[in-house]
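Loading example: each entry is read as three labelled lines plus one structure line.
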Amino acid sequence: MPELNDNFFGKVYEVVRQIPYGKVTTYGAIAKVLGTVRSARMVGWAMNASHNLEDVPAHRVVNKKGLLTGKHHFDGTNLMQQLLESEGIEVKENQIVDFQKHFWTPEMKL
DNA sequence: AAGGTGACCGGCC
DNA sequence: TGGCCGGCCACCT
């Protein structure tokens, strides 16, 4: 029996899945919605597990500075950047250009 | 059961 | 923006 939504991870997946096309969010924002702002690290952990799920666009999740911190965890090295650029997001030196412009938070949805 | 770990954040300089 | 330090919580062994 799949116990996805029951876990802290499940919640993260749902939020990440709701990230619109061409938008990016931060771990802190997700953690905030989950109610655990202080444990933004856990969000990263969740993303690590989300690696197995294809429904979770982890490439749209970056750190506060707009850095593609997790790009190392992707299959390739520039895969994450390619995906973002494919969505119209400019990425330079592992950093998102006009990060704030593409910034999106789950709170917006609410 | 306890300890170690981690794709982070915020504050300070 | 950049570097360093402490906190924080869930997952894994």
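Residues 2 and 45 of chain A are 19 Å apart (CA to CA).
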